[in-house]
Amino acid sequence: SCxxxxxxxxxxxxxxYKYLRGLGVNVLDSVDATRLSDHPLLSKLKFxxxxxxxxxxxxxxxxxxxxxxxQNIFTSxxxxxxxxxxxxxxxxxxxxxxPFEGNLRRKDDTWKLQEIG
Length: 117
Known about the structure:
Elements: H1 11-22, E1 47-53, H2 63-77, E2 81-90, H3 113-116
Parallel strand pairs: 1-2
């Protein structure tokens, strides 16, 4: 997802928050994944696992910006992961450019996940 400031709550957002909090989930929004150590709460914590679902800078045809976003996330997450922790990033099939995806694209048409990770 894109970094967005959710200072103006919507009905759907509030319903989702209520549901997740009912399950015991701590919900934070307006968190910049490229600057986790700057967050007042997250900078004090260490995590076993960080999950980032479908990161992107927004818009189309900005593959270099998305590669840079991933690089910045990899750098930032090191500050909040435990030594044995891991980062999970989901991408669309073929987007990462790894041989494990089964849907190989031209190398210049991928986010080059292995090269930047």
